[in-house]
Design goal:
Ribonucleotide Reductase Protein R1, domain 1, 3 domains, hydrolase, 8 helices, RsgA_N, NA-bd_OB-fold
Length: about 300
């Protein structure tokens, strides 16, 4: 007996696709037509499957994607929980702005979790908290402990929504997901002191049920390529710039040397964080040069 169903790809194992349907997890193979059309199903895809009670089940169609991000790729991401380490590796506003710009470009909402805060002195931690107050004020939700994440995520992930962890290698993503899923034992890794960055310990993407939707664990990003962004659109991916630009004198203001620029006025008044504006200028130069800066290679 052959029947059809729909679901979400939650894992890839040795050429098989595990699909979560309304009632079950079905292991499938992809039809050869995908290879012919150079389309590879990926975790997060909404798909149609063909179930054969007597033989192999097949993935027969990938439904239109909302987005495709990361390496390995993850499809249809609704929200990113960005894990930023307080120390080991050191907290970096510049790296934070790169991540936020990337996900803003992808059209994905972001919340921020500050990990390893218990390893930092109170004075240094207070400085990070002061910096993060600005990001909270412009619209990013900030979490400061695993307990806070655990208590809130289960209520915040809506039906069939996909949240993913992202952040620099060694920031504690696998440790966090272990705390959220006691039956999942992701490998955790030591930090390379010489590089001040973590070693990649997660090499596959899987979706785990959490709340009414799913949470994904992904390999850590140590660098993000922003060069594909169109330079004239970059300012729109800084959310407070986009809001302020409606009061700029010129439509399409790039917030450089234009007269009566509201963004530059707010920077000078201290209402837009200067480090954010400085990072905007650095990313513009990176896009214009068409390559990652040396310190990120």
């Amino acid at each position: 007996m052959i029947r059809k169903d729909q679901g979400i790809v939650i894992g890839l194992i040795a050429g098989f696709y595990d699909v979560q349907t309304a009632n079950d997890i079905v292991r499938t193979r992809a039809r050869g037509v995908f290879r012919k059309n150079k389309l590879k199903p990926t975790v997060g895809d909404h798909v149609k499957i063909q179930i054969d009670d007597q033989g192999t089940n097949y993935l027969v169609e990938v439904l239109p994607r909302k987005n495709l991000i990361g390496r390995p790729a993850l499809a249809n991401v609704n929200h990113v929980l960005l894990v930023m380490s307080a120390v080991q590796p050191d907290f970096s506003l510049q790296l934070l702005d790169r991540f936020l710009t990337f996900f803003s470009w992808q059209g994905v909402a972001v919340s921020i979790y500050l990990s390893k805060s218990d390893l930092l002195s109170s004075s240094k931690l207070n400085k990070i908290h002061e910096d993060l107050l600005y990001y909270n004020a412009i619209g990013y939700r900030i979490y400061y402990s695993q307990e806070e994440v655990a208590n809130n995520l289960i209520h915040e992930i809506a039906a069939e929504n996909i949240w993913t962890l992202a952040g620099q290698s060694g920031a504690g993503k696998s440790t966090l997901i272990n705390s959220l899923q006691s039956d999942v034992k992701q490998e955790t890794g030591a930090i390379s002191n010489s590089l001040n960055r973590g070693k990649h310990t997660t090499r596959t993407v899987n979706l785990f049920p959490l709340g009414k939707g799913f949470l994904a664990d992904t390999p850590g990003f140590s660098a993000i390529d922003l060069t594909p962004i169109k330079v004239k659109e970059l300012c729109d991916y800084f959310i407070e710039f986009r809001k302020a630009s409606s009061n700029c004198k010129f439509r399409g203001c790039q917030h450089l040397n234009e007269p009566s620029c509201e963004v530059k006025r707010l920077v000078e008044a201290g209402e837009i964080k200067k480090s954010r504006y400085d990072d905007y200028l650095l990313i513009r130069k990176e896009i214009e040069n068409g390559r990652l800066p040396e310190y990120l290679k």
